[in-house]
Design a protein that fits this description.
mainly alpha, two-stranded antiparallel sheet
């Protein structure tokens, strides 16, 4: 379901991009990124609703720990595993839109998330801060579509007579299959992790993060295999932006999102550090080569080993 859903989503997204004279990169950073981030949204908002119902809304060790851990872990996994593994198939050229807009905004969103988390005691992201993040999501989506459409309109004319219905059905079908496939994977993985006695924070950072990131992984690899390299990179960067603006934003609107001190002191630096590791790849080399991808995968492996050794 994950692989076929990713296949349908990429194909539908490319057709929509062509129909509206949008580049694959902007579709990857918006439609595809949002679609593949749906499992994170469902898990994180669901975890906060559960915390609210159980009266554990302010407990950083309660169900809400899964929400923040899922978001941070997904951002780490997106860079280390998804971008890293995708580049092992072929050298990925970085789209101009990612260099000019998406990557700087991704770094900005991570910094804002860290500042909001560390502001005040106890560590948390308030409803007001969550609302500001949702406004950031709206601004990003509007800016991405408007700027990319203007760029393409100056260039070659594209056929606008083709029907949108098949492409929309492909996207809807792909998103549904990705969501269901991710849910099935998560159900089994969560049961296994609980039987091993893992904490809520570690479950969120590992099992839930990897499970909810499977759609991004499947989508990016399928995009690379179809030659849509722009979608592969834009999907990773766009998903990280959506994870902060959309998922942190909406989850903290349910209840203020508590942040475990260990997340602030250990996991946030890894999330930001892995993202900054892309800086020379993007702006000096303008590509993610195979050896660079191997380094990203290696850094992710090191993070997981150190994380699990802390809780052993």
């Amino acid at each position: 379901m994950l692989i076929k859903g990713a296949d349908l989503l990429v194909e539908g997204a490319v057709k929509i991009a062509q129909r509206f004279q949008l580049t694959p990169a902007v579709i990857g950073a918006t439609v595809v990124a949002f679609g593949t981030s749906l499992p994170e949204l469902v898990v994180s908002v669901g975890a906060n609703v559960k915390a609210l119902n159980e009266g554990l809304g302010s407990d950083p060790n309660g169900p809400a720990a899964i929400a923040i851990g899922n978001i941070v872990g997904s951002n780490i996994f997106n860079v280390g595993a998804i971008l890293g593994l995708s580049s092992l198939f072929t050298c990925l050229r970085v789209p101009d839109s990612v260099l000019k807009r998406d990557y700087p905004l991704m770094i900005f969103s991570l910094l804002i998330m860290i500042v909001f988390s560390a502001w005040g005691e106890p560590y948390s992201i308030s409803r007001l801060e969550g609302g500001l993040l949702v406004l950031g999501l709206m601004f990003f989506t509007y800016k991405a579509i408007r700027s990319e459409k203007a760029e393409v309109e100056e260039g070659e004319e594209i056929d606008k007579t083709s029907s949108l219905v098949p492409a929309i059905l492909f996207v809807i079908g792909g998103v549904l299959m990705l969501t269901l496939g991710g849910e099935v994977s998560l159900t089994g993985a969560l049961a296994i992790s609980r039987s091993l006695g893992m904490s809520e924070r570690v479950i969120g950072l590992t099992v839930m993060a990897i499970g909810t990131s499977l759609p991004e992984l499947a989508t990016s690899i399928q995009a690379v295999k179809k030659g849509q390299h722009d979608i592969a990179i834009a999907n990773v960067v766009g998903s990280n932006i959506f994870n902060v603006f959309s998922i942190v934003g909406f989850a903290s609107l349910v209840i203020p999102l508590p942040v475990h001190p260990a997340v602030l002191s250990w996991d946030y630096p890894w999330m930001l550090g892995l993202s900054l590791a892309l800086l020379p790849m993007f702006y000096i080399f303008k590509k993610v080569d195979r050896w660079m991808g191997a380094c990203l995968v290696g850094l992710l492996g090191l993070y997981l080993v150190l994380l699990l050794s802390q809780t052993a």
